Amino acid sequence: MNFAERAKELVSKMTLEERMAQLCNKAPAIERLGVPSYDWWNEALHGVARAGTATVFPQAIAMASSFNDDLLEQVGDVISDEARAKYNVYKKFGGTEIYQGLTECAPNINIFRDPRWGRGQETFGEDPYLTGRMGAAYVRGMQGNGKSKYRKVDTTLKHFAVHSGPEGKRHGFNAVVSEKDLRETYLYAFKYCIDHADAASVMGAYNAVNGEPATGGKHLVEDILYGEWGFQGYMVSDAGSVKDIHEGHKFTKNEVESAAFALNAGCHLNIGTSYRELPQAYAMGLVSEETITKACEKLFETRFRLGMFDEDCEYNNISYDCVECDAHRALNRQMARESIVLLKNDGILPLKTPKTIAVIGPNADRVSLLLGNYNGIPSRYATILRGIQEATDARVLYSAGVFPSTTSQMSDIYREAVVTAERADVVILCVGLNPSMEGEEGIDAPNSANCGDRADIELPKRQQELIRRVVAVGKPTVLVNVSGSCVNLCEADRLCNAVVQLFYAGAEGGRALADVLLGKVSPSGRLPVTFYRSTDDLPPFEDYSMENRTYKFFKGDPLYAFGHGLTYSNIIETPLDENTVEVFNEGPYDTAYSVLKYEYIPHKSLCGFKKIFVRAGERITVRFD
Amino acid sequence: MNFAERAKELVSKMTLEERMAQLCNKAPAIERLGVPSYDWWNEALHGVARAGTATVFPQAIAMASSFNDDLLEQVGDVISDEARAKYNVYKKFGGTEIYQGLTECAPNINIFRDPRWGRGQETFGEDPYLTGRMGAAYVRGMQGNGKSKYRKVDTTLKHFAVHSGPEGKRHGFNAVVSEKDLRETYLYAFKYCIDHADAASVMGAYNAVNGEPATGGKHLVEDILYGEWGFQGYMVSDAGSVKDIHEGHKFTKNEVESAAFALNAGCHLNIGTSYRELPQAYAMGLVSEETITKACEKLFETRFRLGMFDEDCEYNNISYDCVECDAHRALNRQMARESIVLLKNDGILPLKTPKTIAVIGPNADRVSLLLGNYNGIPSRYATILRGIQEATDARVLYSAGVFPSTTSQMSDIYREAVVTAERADVVILCVGLNPSMEGEEGIDAPNSANCGDRADIELPKRQQELIRRVVAVGKPTVLVNVSGSCVNLCEADRLCNAVVQLFYAGAEGGRALADVLLGKVSPSGRLPVTFYRSTDDLPPFEDYSMENRTYKFFKGDPLYAFGHGLTYSNIIETPLDENTVEVFNEGPYDTAYSVLKYEYIPHKSLCGFKKIFVRAGERITVRFD
């Protein structure tokens, strides 16, 4: 029997009540049938998350900057190894609990259409094609890419669809969007990941789209997902998004109706508790026994496909020893290196053996900057400060630069930074945001006024002043901006000798940055989002039209364009024909390099990329198929 | 001219208004007289604090556990070097600001009479003699011990007097205390540090004592401090304690009267702004010109004695290079090692080359645990986890053990800890408190319900359960408790193979602990406070009678007594005569060792201690003078 047949047989032995109870994320055990309890809610955005120690890779937006989907597929393979390792050990306790299972609520392939969105860091950036390619690579790596009859883990494409803030209104927000933007921008990556990577699952978003709740709306779910696309996987709600259907959107009258609406539309699993109302909905004739049974069969088909009931599943043998092992940490460092984007360099980088390096700024020694959100806990990690200390014999001076509230009586809080800069040959100035300044509503963002979003794209005022004061000292200065999104770096670009963008960089982030700053490797990341010059460049945050947004449609002049990213070498691209480019490294450094291909339809639009490694003096011919 | 004469001459050139303005901590510049602005408020409890990067030594309570006052004097010497180095560089900006000067609001020599007091961690423990000896050593080290005609920095004995909670009531609390307890317990260390170390300054406390505000009360200040003791230094208020005289204690009618009361009593300097009312108080005839002038002369005498107006002061030459230099870090590690107290050991320690070590618990990788409160910022540091990782080739596994709120839906939050323990040869289980659970009202303690104090001496319930669950795995388990105060460790003592007390241990704390656990050095710390078995052992928190408190008067049976602390060796003390002891190390380990001497008056009372280093097999004769 295949997985579907085995599921059908198993479900046929369940009572209707039992079937309904299986449709919430905390699925109970059915002991007489040998079914252990299972929690469908698990997180693995950039490493197994919220389940203790794990390899913490760079945040998704950082991995997107690598423009290296092959590497990302390897990362997905490693993350799913760790998820399996944890599942294998936790299942011995009986059932597994939340964050201990195999059905991962990742990747987030929403479009980062506006830099103010706090969760933009979770995405692969602003471009649908890049998002599709990176998302598909992640899904393939995670799911095992068909190498076994069993799926390694399930991935869930989220949030379906047109979901990108405001966080504070998400439970009742109606995103108004044209059919063109819907297809071309907001849905492109979902279809891509289904078509090219066979993603197991899709998650319905909190918001409504053009008046219909995303978790079950006719146009999105019935017409497009199941209709046009013929999606064969399963659909889950976001945590509590079924409840939003009546509470937030007033689309139904109560939770019974919401549960019926979502299930009837094809949302098989409710992350949350609204489907506890299904018995009532069934009693009222709002859902049929057949619909319930088919949803339950779908969910058990996936549990069979994950090998949960089979001794011979080869993934059962993945040992806990792999969690945060040396090989995984090495891959993590590689991804962190490729994620670093060099935005400006007057020649100061790589550093030429300075005797004394001043590392200055509030972002120099913050562990949270390595982690982003939806993260695991690393047991070995290096902040920027630590990474530089480990990598050099130079004397490393440090000043946090701006201090917390105990200095409130100080009229000049920048003195230590100035003194520290004065004493050094070169300054590494670490500014930017942190995950408490941008994040998700109610979870990661004490930035409560905006529920995780930002009101503007400026650096905090004290950091702006810190830059001015430190640069005024007159030492060569490399500015490192750490953030999960675009920040206005115009002044930094004008004042500093080099500017480096580090997205939340994972456990090895500080070491990877030191590798780059000290010239052990050349940077090779590219921006997956536009770096605007001003908040005034942006349309209203709640306006979901793509007009004047992202590199495709922005009419102004960005500070750093989408795709921008320098290496230490000098790369010359020569088109040989429409699909072939010769890449010549005429500079003195070996470097990784992403070749990008654009089309004009009529707006400029990424349609291909390929990352290669070119040695100094080497020529490589790259073909796009 | 001596310093007093120079001060008198300088002050004679000031107007009365200028003199009055010099009596607040933010003393303004008087340019025509060449007097730069100066802020008298500076912090250096266990390293230069709140002034950026500095060597962060173990918290005061930890250094007390070393029972090594010679070492503490060296620490004081190093801290004052760093304070001088910072002052020397910051004075070039014109005046120095808060936390950049030479007049340090340390040490805290209050008696840690009740473990619930959040600031107990700042003290040298519960014993007046130990507090006096350690306080005096710190003062000597900091002030330069008379090696120069200039004082290196000023120390301030705080908080004078009878000050130890509750934090939430401190601005209006009246401590009721017998004359015997006052003299024998609460004032002993103040007199000791004045007599034996010539402390520059005394700080008046917030509270009242037997109905008189401590900042100016007749019995404490006039009769005892200036009268009986003949104190020749200067007195400062606590931050805002002059305002408490009318607002909290209702002892005067308004701020004008409070300012007059405190100044007339001999409080020369107001940390705060109440002395801005002195012109009004003078106009009303509440203070005399002579009193104002004498206070101002006293303050300038100390500024002259600190060499602030002299080019030839040798301390001007202390270079910023010394801040957190290798020598200071080495001394820090030495102090951290000697601060560790081994409470129980069934022979498991030192560890015998395990292949896999599990480091488990919420206190294993928390930087805040190194810092305590009133701390600087270290640029190089090691948590417990990092210290063990650096020190061993064994595989080190890690689980934080209990997780934050994202696991709230988990019914069993201990699984990772259990799994991690199962995979190891030995478990290091790191529990305890942290500086957000015990601290100062309004500053360091989000523990807002109790304003920094604790309601009881128990470990958090989830940590108690963590201990049970991890121990149940059956692996050899070393419990490390990190806290700034006594915690009920009865169950840990019963369940674990070894119990180690680490007070907030400073930047090198993790490395020092690894040195001890892995046998590089033998532990040699002793408890400076009683470890009680239960909160029920304690009298009411607000009762300042010493009856049934501390090892001297406690009638019950403590879990670990004051002075308790094991080494890895076996030390045999043989009294030779009343003042001489032979110390024989009959065990296999070299170790530092503190010999304690008690008298019975009639209660048991520490009257001498001396720390020595005894090699295995060695006999040393120790004489108490």
Give a quick set of tags describing it.
alpha/beta, globular, six-stranded mixed beta sheet, homodimer, 625 residues, 20 helices
How would you describe the overall organization of this protein?
The structure is a homodimer of 625-residue chains. Chain A has 20 helices and 20 strands. Chain A is globular. The mean pLDDT of chain A is 96. By secondary structure, chain A is α/β, with parallel strands linked by helices. The first copy, chain A, starts with a helix and ends with a strand. Chain A is 31% helix and 16% strand. Chain A has helices at residues 3-12, 16-21, 60-65, 69-90, 128-143, 179-186, 188-197, 218-228, 241-247, 255-265, 278-283, 289-305, 326-339, 368-371, 384-391, 415-422, 461-471, 490-495, 509-517, 550-553, and strands at residues 26-27, 38-39, 103-104, 154-160, 174-175, 201-204, 208-209, 212-213, 234-237, 341-345, 356-360, 395-399, 426-432, 477-482, 498-502, 571-577, 580-585, 591-600, 604-614, 619-623. In chain A, the strands form six sheets. Chain A has a six-stranded mixed sheet with strand order 10-15-14-13-11-12, sandwiched between helices.
